Amino acid sequence: MREPYREILVVDLLGGIGDLIMLLPVVHGLARRNPGGSLRVLTHEPGAALLRGDPAVTRVLTPRHGGAGAEREAVAEALAARRPDLAVTTTRYDGIPDLLAASGARCVTDLWRRPPPDEPVGERYLRILLAEGLLRPEDALARPAVRLTPAEIAYGESVLAHRLPAVTVRPPVVLITDAGMDVKRWPAGRWRELAASLARRGHPLLTPDAPPKRGAEDAVFGPEVATLPRCGLRGLAACFAAVARRGGVVVGGDTGPLRLAAAAGAATVGLFGPTWAGRYGLGSRDGVGSADLQGLPGCPHRRPTAITEQPCWWTAECPLSPAGPACMADIPVASVVRAVTRLCAGRPARHPADDADPC
């Protein structure tokens, strides 16, 4: 077998929290296969916080500014500080692959090559690195995991203890209404209908706090839905982990927070419209269930392997509906309720004291 790489640089500058979370199995797999090595990750804030404190990561790097060329400058600085033996990147713009290759490191610079439409993105990364001899077959089965400290786990438990009733009939459900992009938004009226339906069934409801973005429409819920505090990504992950330990479910669009919930161990219901669930869905992981609901599966404008080239992507102007993305409106509340009910039935709630090591 080859000697372990001593200096590893992983570059993910795509900008999305979800993009970084999909790469976590690669980071953890490379750390396992190169014990004792130094593994640096160059990525954007706020996602970088998810790697700070991760025992697999030696150092987290971020661009110094938000102006033009910042990402390329950050790569050049990382290479100048310590030349890697191995460099892996998801980022292909601004000549970054060529910059890494010129360093003399062993490089894998195209984790997007020839993707089939129904292979999940994260699995594609792992299979390419397996084919490159950088991972082992068991690594290809890994799923994203955010590694929390005992203090963070305790924080999440405390937050939920103060926001959930002492006695509940059903497990809690977290509703993530913010989608980051308008094209991924489920209609506000659907969220209100879902909350009412789940509350009638006895589920305590929670939602992450977020600054208003769209005026009065952002006030989706009434007092029946408790608000989680603004606590950063790691704090939010801790709250999701506490929900998971109570057998709860997190519902949301194809966004970073939903992927964060899955990486924290929670069951999820994903609402997929412009993105294809076969490629971006969360799937079942390590015994934890999920439901990926695809709106308007037959949309002729969807491009599963080139989503940013879809006519609706940047503007949310749907060619099929003047009222907004037809694919998101195609997901019925009843389907979401059924998915939540099924997942909750398969995950009985546990008290935090039931396990010595909750993470």
Automatic annotation (TrEMBL):
Lineage: superkingdom: Bacteria
Name used for this protein in its record: ADP-heptose:LPS heptosyltransferase
Biological source species: Microbispora siamensis
Lineage: Bacteria, Bacillati, Actinomycetota, Actinomycetes, Streptosporangiales
Keywords: Glycosyltransferase, Transferase
Matches recorded under InterPro entries: Glyco_trans_9, LPS_LOS_Heptosyltrfase
Matches recorded under Pfam families: Glyco_transf_9
Record carries keyword Glycosyltransferase: yes
Record bears the keyword Amino-acid biosynthesis: no
